[in-house]
Amino acid sequence: MTAHRRLMASLGAFVVSAPLITGCTDSSGPDAPAPAASAGAVDLKAAGCPATIVVQTDWNPESEHGYTYQMLGDDAVVDAGKKSVSGPLYLGGRSTGVKLEVRAGGPAIGYTGVGAQLYTDTSITMGYITTDDQIAASATTPTRAFFAPLDQSPAMVMWDPATYPEVNRVADLKGALDKSGGVWRYLAGAAYQDYLLDAGLVSKKSQDAGYDGTPANFVAARGKDVQQGYSSSEPYIYEHEVKAWGKPVKYALISETGWNPYPSAMAVRVADFDKLSPCLKALTPVLQKSEVDYFANPAAADDLIQKLVTEYNTGWTYSPGVADYARRTMIETKLVSNGTNSTLGDFDPDRMAKFLGTAQPIYTRLGSPVAAGLKVGDLYTNEFIDTSIGLK
């Protein structure tokens, strides 16, 4: 399964806490229905969407989720106990006739995978699921994705450039670690490590599944070890917020090795796909436009993310500096992009087919419940994507 655990806040003096931001309230109450769709706006209620679209995210609130929080307004209501926020679903400031509830993942749901959570709690309409997780659990909790907000995964391995000046790519690490005796620390259960081992890109002796989400071991190794992370957060955090490190790290994306899933794609339970299709046809362009809007004008969504991190109080910190770095990095390094065409949010069929061929035998060997006869078309669709919507 994909390792989603990010750098956590149980670090003592290592990480700076996020500032407290005053929140917003809904004078009409959390149970009030959404206002009718504004004149000329997308009417998701008329399209057959649920009165409240419930989205399960895969982690604490962060900039990767910005497009989802972009659809909430200043009348959104926070439920700190349930780690959720809800309110009318807006596009461009206009009501769509339904409400949106966004639920935090990760520690908020006991690190349960989103696919499993979808099947445990059927009140959830859709959730963020990475392609490799879809494949791994396709026999027990099958899902179908319909929108890909990130074109590339931020999953990466990072190292100290002063210790390993000759390392520039993932392929350079095997020889460097074999020579130094350092280890590649990762979160147990990351199947891409089995792929890297099969591909000869890492030695068995240098693999260490002991990553616990804190910087302590990386710092203690004084640059000898390398570590998993996310390119949209850790490079900034280690340089600016982990005082015991306080210098740049270098990184390479895991996707450059051929392990190239779509991260955090929006997906629904397979059994609900046909029933939800009329809604998804109307909703998917809203998601596309909301992501374009977020990167053009992120201030309100970023403020909400900061508020939620503070109020949820899960041990996760997410400073404005990290948020700014994440948003900038996603665009500059094309984690968020139009891919090979001019459309935001679609899946590349050839890439999906190639990844299924890469991941399926590994998960089968690891004993994951991969569906018999799984086909790439079972995992995703582009049928609801508006091809005219893209980043400019």
Poorly predicted tracts of residues: 9-28
Largest sheet: 7 strands, mixed
The structural class is: alpha/beta
Relative helix content: 25-40%
Question: Keywords for this structure?
Answer:
392 residues; alpha/beta; D-Maltodextrin-Binding Protein, domain 2; 2 domains; 12 strands; single chain; 15% strand; 7-stranded mixed sheet; 5-stranded mixed sheet
Compact summary:
This protein has 392 residues and is of the alpha/beta class. 29% of the residues lie in helices and 15% in strands.
Give a verbal description of the structure:
The chain has 392 residues and is of the alpha/beta class. The chain folds into 2 domains: 218 residues, 3-Layer(aba) Sandwich (D-Maltodextrin-Binding Protein, domain 2); 103 residues, 3-Layer(aba) Sandwich (D-Maltodextrin-Binding Protein, domain 2). Helix content is 29%, strand content 15%. It has 11 helices and 12 strands. The chain has a 7-stranded mixed β-sheet, with helices on both faces. A 5-stranded mixed β-sheet has the order 9-8-10-7-11, with no helix packed on it. The chain is globular and about 65 Å long.
